[in-house]
Amino acid sequence: xxxxxxxxxGLIISLSFPVAWLPVNSSLAQxxxxxxxxxxxxxxxxxxxxxxxxxxxxxxxxxxxxxVDQLHxxxxxxxxxxxxxxAFQIWYRELRLRQKLNPVDEVKALGRVGEIAWSDNxxxxxxxxxxxxxxxxxxxxxxxxxELIELLAKTYERINVSDRAIALYESxxxxxxxxIPFLEKIATLxxxxxxxxxxxxxxxxxxxxxxxxxNLSATINYLTSLKEIYEESGNAEQGIAVKKRLVSIHQxxxxxxxxxxxxxxxxxxxxxxxxxxxxxQTYREAFNKAWSQxxxxxxxxxxxxxxxxxxxxxxxxxxxxxxEQLLIVQQRANNAYGLMMxxxxxxxxxxxxxRAQQALTAFENALEWAQRLGYxxxxxxxxxxxLKS
Length: 389
Prior knowledge:
By secondary structure, the protein is an all-alpha fold. It has a domain at 68-176: Serine Threonine Protein Phosphatase 5, Tetratricopeptide repeat (Alpha Horseshoe). 75% of the residues lie in helices and 0% in strands. It is built from 18 helices and no strands. The protein is elongated. The relative contact order is 0.04. Mean pLDDT is 89; it is low at 1-32.
């Protein structure tokens, strides 16, 4: 056992020795020193000595590749042991040496280390790696190396540099026989950056592709993504067209279970854009679908939103009628809080219209539910007292 430990210790020391050849250590990488990856010439015990100007021979490249893989494993061991600075010292050395090998393996290694640096909040290390990736990117573009450009885009994603990833995916769209994967990446990354306009444009292009291919499944997915984007960005006007098409597709496919929530969302957009007649009709349709499927939460929301729409328009007779219907739905849904709040609003409307007795009855009902909930009893007791005094 002791002999094995000594051998292991000797191996680690032998691998660790060349770390001293690093121009900076990981702590120095957090200062204003030169990027340790941005060097044209450097010496390392794993490279030919004396240094050579020529490319490495196949045998030299093979030996170096095996050695840098060992460095990576050694760095992982340090990192997993909590020795983060030592790990990054070795990773920097590995990344420098990989510049002597092929760019594909170097980019993969940069992405691997960069992802760790980003997750550990090592911003200077991420900047160093990003700078090196941009140098490789410039060469890849000069040579029109589409395979390397795509790998670079994926690597930028790994280190959360999505603006560069989007730019590269956009460049790959040109002359692409299959633009769909790139458009999907652009759409997803743009949405993550809250660039809803670009995300929507990409999904619209994807929608055109799926329509041409008569790919209904993809069409539904892209329409659903557009629906979510328009909801997140508050674009009710654009949302209406997308949701109407989704409703039509689900009706044709007999996907009844998806209709209540979708119709409710569509009705909300109609209401927001003051298309009140369409909103009324769609809220009622959403209610009927939800009620028939015992989706009482959606049914309740449809009636509540419709009542509030007329309430906001000061069409109080319609609003009161709908609030009374809402009470029935909320009772079915066992929504005690909803019942309390609905009775409260009914009481306020009656009070505004000088119908004190009806307002009093509504507030007393609200108080009963408040007492069951142990919530806002004093609030309703004050309302009742003010009406009685």
